[in-house]
Design a protein that fits this description.
about 150 residues, alpha+beta, Small Protein B, Chain: A, 7-stranded antiparallel beta sheet, two-stranded antiparallel sheet, 9 strands, about 35% helix
Amino acid sequence: MKLICQNKRAYHDYTVLEKIQAGIALTGTEVKSCRGGTMSLAQSYVHFEPRAAKLVNANIATYAMGSYNNHVPTRQRQLLLHKVEIRRLKRAVEAKGLTVIPLQAYFDDKGHVKLDLGLCRGKNVQDKREDLKEKIDRRETDRLMKSRKFKG
């Protein structure tokens, strides 16, 4: 598994309730550009249509050697999911007020581009503060444990 990019703000802004793996339909120049690591998932989300799921606002930079065959960097890209998964996610988004966002993009063992999608609920300011406090506490305890190992 070769990581292309991560959505670093996802875990800060959202609580991830469930993770789903999905394929993504790309053109040739988009795949070549992804191999160079020029993909960004910031501000992207999944939009549901009657029989399809589309990735919106994901930016894949144009390929330098693409000439006239190059792609549009921020076009909507179709996600490759089963019908059952699309229906289940669509119902969750409509009924419970959740959202589906991409967490990371990577190449699998066969060389296909895959996305990890997260079914998420937005965090409020208080939740973000609590997570930050927990992170600081964890860091301090790890630091103390590490210093005790070297002393004793």
